[in-house]
Amino acid sequence: xxxxxxxxxxxxxxxxxxxxxxxxxxxxxxxxxxxxxxxxxxxxxxxxxxxxxxxxxxxxxxxxxxxxxxxxxxxxxxxxxxxxxxxxxxxxxxxxxxxxxxxxxxxxxxxxxxxxxxxxxxxxxxxxxxxxxxxxxxxxxxxxxxxxxxxxxxxxxxxxxxxxxxxxxxxxxxxxxxxxxxxxxxxxxxxxxxxxxxxxxxxxxxxxxxxxxxxxxxxxxxxxxxxxxxxxxxxxxxxxxxxxxxxxxxxxxxxxxxxxxxxxxxxxxxxxxxxxxxxxxxxxxxxxxxxxxxxxxxxxxxxxxxxxxxxxxxxxxxxxxxxxxxxxxxxxxxxxxxxxxxxxxxxxxxxxxxxxxxxxxxx
Amino acid sequence: xxxxxxxxxxxxxxxxxxxxxxxxxxxxxxxxxxxxxxxxxxxxxxxxxxxxxxxxxxxxxxxxxxxxxxxxxxxxxxxxxxxxxxxxxxxxxxxxxxxxxxxxxxxxxxxxxxxxxxxxxxxxxxxxxxxxxxxxxxxxxxxxxxxxxxxxxxxxxxxxxxxxxxxxxxxxxxxxxxxxxxxxxxxxxxxxxxxxxxxxxxxxxxxxxxxxxxxxxxxxxxxxxxxxxxxxxxxxxxxxxxxxxxxxxxxxxxxxxxxxxxxxxxxxxxxxxxxxxxxxxxxxxxxxxxxxxxxxxxxxxxxxxxxxxxxxxxxxxxxxxxxxxxxxxxxxxxx
Amino acid sequence: xxxxxxxxxxxxxxxxxxxxxxxxxxxxxxxxxxxxxxxxxxxxxxxxxxxxxxxxxxxxxxxxxxxxxxxxxxxxxxxxxxx
Lengths: 363, 335, 83
Fold this sequence. Notes:
Chain B has eight helices and 14 strands. With 335 residues, chain B is of the alpha+beta class. The two termini of chain B are 30 Å apart. Chain C is built from one helix and five strands. Helix content of chain C is 19%, strand content 37%. A five-stranded antiparallel β-sheet of chain C has the order 3-2-1-4-5, with no helix packed on it. Chain C is elongated, with a radius of gyration of 16 Å. Strand 8 (188-189) of chain B pairs antiparallel with strand 3 (33-38) of chain C, so a sheet runs across the interface.
């Protein structure tokens, strides 16, 4: 596969590993804030080849993981309504709420369907004119433009049976909350390559300008990740607090202006609750008043109040990178992919799921 | 005969006999079956037999590379073959939904007969039941099979040893991805084709090359990951795979990348893994590559000297990643 | 497979080649597999160019020049022993 295979080259990667092990021996904490990075790092065994002084922390990079439990509970309430079809990304199916999960509801007879893309909802709506489709619209900046396009198409075509229950979030404000946390010491960030493809590199300048923390825009193939780490470790060791782009074949400084145009014309930035972290100002996206007819909460007259997650679950600490999943008392004992307590274990991008799958001790 | 299966086709009366004669016996013709006894009567002259059963509920019933009938024969033949037995006789029992197309049934039965001919087995007993509409999804098939266990061959899940080389007979994940793409209508188009095949003649070829093979297992549900984990557990060994060496079709690579799936966990229906002592690995590999079902056979890893029961992958980066037992719901009705 | 269907990974995106275009839609090929993809975010994409596909939508063009530059840097690394 072009633009994939070349970036998985064995020889180049071994050279990059060698380089990475020869930059500095200073103890540093690097955080990545993208679930796909979390998974890729495990998939390629990158932790194994890092020098021992680099501590790689997974941050709140998984949109499903940071969605408050109240969202799932409300989604379940919606699934119980007559003539409603819930359309959702696969990841949300097993997230546990107070009354079970969407997966359980489906087994009990609720009409819950997995979609690959928000645009699939348009066809679903037209094929089911007597039903009300409720799309669980979650995701970061990579996914939000697609939700924007979908709602614009729905409005253009006067589709009246499609509704959105949104929980979109944007990453930079959450990162700012983390760097302000006195208990965390983050020396540098691996920046999420595909989010940057949309929003560009400017939204991350605050890290360098206000907090003297460098960040490197990083892709997802093994060579990309190793190159990103190399550059970041070099910047940290030289105390060079810049934002660098190591994913230039995809990311431009200005991002994708057309995608940003879609986002700006459809969404308002609002305060938002991040599970385990708390309320972060200006960190969420909601459809603006032009699209209020598509708002599921308004249509079904639901008074939505947010609340966080399950007691005992340490997802919050894990999402902030303060502890590792192996430090959570429930990990592997009460909490597993088959019986998840928290969303970090359910989501295929969740840190706990990644650790569970890839990080077991030898039997 | 009407063009749809009705409840009377399963009642044991005139319609049942008509169906048996005009569809089943038309294709499953052989000396034992033609005697039409309630039970097949077979002369055997060997001491140890292998005996297996499997049920098939695959959805969709027809897919690129085969159908539920072909799968039903291959699956049971392969279970016998990888146990070190020569597959001989199969039974086939059908549970059919009222309203099922007789033309489709005939196509399924014809495939089964053809596959049985290829595998060199006879279908010697069967049963047909019909249930009301909605009580079964189209058609379900059960096949049971017996085979003669080869003397002097000791193939067992617990026989893997440090130093063994692991070979697979071709590309992985073909069947599962074919089923997934056809069923879920993901809008992915390409040349995905199930690898569904009877592997007994390939196993014979392998054993002829070296009769001291330690383990042979077919990699069905849960993919190669499932079967390697089982072997690791039963043999109490550590298995190391080489990411660069896993054979995959471009289509499977593309589809799994797009969907975020791992080909190691995806079902196969015509793939097996072999554990061979290192000294004989090249000989077995060469023999496999001469066989139609082993043209793309490849060494994918080995049993290491490490303690413990685990399977890991040496990644392109030089790191290691655990390849754990698959958990949770696999894609349902894959076979 | 642990999950039943795609749409699981929020940033999972893969490069694909544009085979044909039809208004806001295009057929994109990834590893010999073709999929219909929405092209709203990359209106300037041409046939035979490469785009990054995420959840059924092309989200950015792939800059082949930049890709080549990156690979050349890696190649140079191999040839020099300097850290």
